[in-house]
Amino acid sequence: MNDVTRIDYTGTGLSEDEVADTPWRQARLWVDEAVERSRAQADVPEPHALSVATVDSDGVPNVRTVLMRYFDERGPGFLTSTLSTKGSELSGNPAIAASLTWPSMYRAIRFRGRAELLDRDEVAAYFASRPWASRISAWASRQSQPVASRAELETAYEAYAVRWPDRGSADDVPLPDFWGGYRIVCDEVEFWGGRSNRLHDRLVFTRTSQGHLDDPGAWTLARRQP
């Protein structure tokens, strides 16, 4: 190809001297800095965009982007229809990989592990916090299923909007039984920092025992070649 775009990655990288002592603390720092940058300038438009990879029953990988709506010492989490393609694949094989990527900051975090269903109370609390229109959309869309046209989708939306009109209350729209979410219980967390001449930094926390992301005794740290 003659039209290859070549950009020298001028990030600050990440060294063993500056990395936090647990994957949670380092990830929390980078996520917070991405959010702060998104508020200050336009080059990080969605700091919580999380690419999520699953595998189907034939072992074929599948990837899509969701929004990370939970992140604590237990791991990152996201909401979705449990009947969607990702939900179906995770019910057959809970293996999962995900990444947060901020190209303008020359940073990325990779998570690998298994998916666990979020507690129903957590899902209900988040669903109630969504705007009314988003709650209606959750009912109108049979996520990942074929649809004949945009008009058919909008007709379904209007039908549910009439059924559950906006009265300004968190319980205007009931929680669908097929709407839930997953948390990634991590076995590996990698921090990638782009550097000049493609000599990027890759510092990887690998689980060695039971414990959450903020348990120093549960992880070992190693560097990988870029």
What order do the helices and strands come in, and which of them pair?
Blueprint: H1 23-40, E1 49-55, E2 61-67, E3 70-72, E4 75-81, H2 85-92, E5 95-102, E6 107-117, H3 120-129, H4 132-140, H5 150-163, E7 179-193, E8 201-207, E9 219-223
Antiparallel strand pairs: 1-2, 1-5, 3-4, 4-7, 5-6, 6-7, 7-8, 8-9
Helix pairs in contact: 4-5
Can you describe this structure?
It is a single chain. The protein is an alpha+beta fold. It has five helices and nine strands; from the N terminus they run αββββαββαααβββ. Strands 1, 2, 3, 4, 5, 6, 7, 8 and 9 form a nine-stranded antiparallel β-sheet that branches. Helix 4 crosses helix 5. The longest helix has 18 residues. The radius of gyration is 20 Å and the shape is globular.
Summarize the structure.
The chain is an alpha+beta fold.
Helix content: 25-40%
Secondary-structure element string? HEEEEHEEHHHEEE
Number of strands: 9
**Count of separate DSSP helical elements:** 5
Which blocks of ≥5 consecutive residues have pLDDT under 50?
A: none
What is the CA–CA distance across the termini? 23 Å
Q: Mean of the pLDDT scores?
A: 96
**Coarse shape:** globular
The biggest sheet amounts to:
9 strands, antiparallel
List keywords for this structure.
single chain, 226 residues, nine-stranded antiparallel β-sheet, 31% strand, 9 strands, alpha+beta
